[in-house]
Amino acid sequence: MELGNSSLDNFTSNYTEPPDAIPPPPWSEATLLSLQISLSVLLAVITLATVLSNAFVIATIYLTRKLHTPANFLIGSLAVTDLLVSILVMPISIVYTVSKTWALGQIVCDIWLSSDITFCTASILHLCVIALDRYWAITDALEYTKRRTMRRAAIMVGVVWVISISISMPPLFWRQAKAHEELKECMVNTDQISYTLYSTFGAFYVPTVLLIILYGRIYVAARTRIFKTPSSSGKRFTTAQLIQTSAASSLCSLNSSSNQEAQQHSLNVGGGGSGGSPLFMNSVKVKLADSVLERNRLCAARERKATKTLGIILGAFIVCWLPFFVGTLVMAICKECWFDPALFDIFTWLGYLNSLINPVIYTAFNDEFKQAFQKLMKFRRFS
């Protein structure tokens, strides 16, 4: 999101000095040019990395049937949103940040600002729906598994885009092109304090509070589920006892319930009413108990990793976007406060950096993504 004009003028700005002070040598044109080139290269590398990483996540999900799930559909939608940020927002922002002035006209300015606010807000809100999906899956695994469909995920994504567009549209109604004046800067008018409060709370503060609450509950639920697994006990359990005492992981709930039904059926066929020997029955129960126990251990490990991944994503999101939204809110409320334009540029690009961090986290901490990503890097088509 861009709410302040880009500037390198702080390198060349005049300031009051004591009369006897020796003025520092002015920046030469060659030095300024080298700074602009270095900054352009750095921002271009960040933009290119954002494009490639999100494109690989989208391709990985598309080419891997095992990843065709509602949860991964939400992750893929987040990658599409971050890809739009890197293609439609960040390149123009590079030109604006380096050149210090807007030279693309009023129409392009309006389109760019609307795209900036819409896509960045949608990226943030995608994190909320992913956390909400995760929360429902871990706290109400059996019931939510029945409702966790692609249609439901698509509806959640649709709500995200409706909210994002409703936050980005209002500035278009009061921005007026000045026919006889050349447009020198392109930024949202922070004098509209009501809109600033509406947009910052809708795009960041409310989603952040929601994310923190959801992650707290997910963390507590995951720890409770992990400690309820039979791995902490040294004795063996029968299949019935394991079903009663262990809560299957949301990631394994479908397999868990179907396996338990099959196990119960095999017990009924093997010994129920057919005179099976007690030794045979005990052997079958022990083997089934070991199987369920091992599955619960694997699910607990997945639960830990998924919760850790979500926590890292939450932390990265707050670090990337908090400075920008705090600065925006302070500038709107405190008219006498001042931020260095270069500092605001750093805050803006730190927010854009979140679109690069999201796919990196998913590919680094998710084993399924990591394996599929490695295959994709080897140019091997798979199913």
TrEMBL record:
Q: Which Pfam families match?
A: 7tm_1
Share an example GO biological-process annotation for this protein.
Answer: chemical synaptic transmission
Q: Which family does it belong to?
A: Belongs to the G-protein coupled receptor 1 family.
Annotated transmembrane regions: 37-63, 75-99, 111-132, 153-173, 193-215, 312-334, 346-365
| Predominant localisation class | membrane
Annotated PANTHER family? 5-HYDROXYTRYPTAMINE RECEPTOR 1D, ADRENERGIC RECEPTOR-RELATED G-PROTEIN COUPLED RECEPTOR
Q: Does the keyword Metal-binding apply?
A: no
Instruction: Please state every residue range assigned to the domain named G-protein coupled receptors family 1 profile.
Output: 53-362
Q: Which GO terms describe its molecular function?
A: G protein-coupled serotonin receptor activity
Topology of this chain in the membrane? Multi-pass membrane protein
Q: What is this protein called?
A: 5-hydroxytryptamine receptor 1D
Name of the encoding gene: htr1d_1
- Cellular location(s): Cell membrane
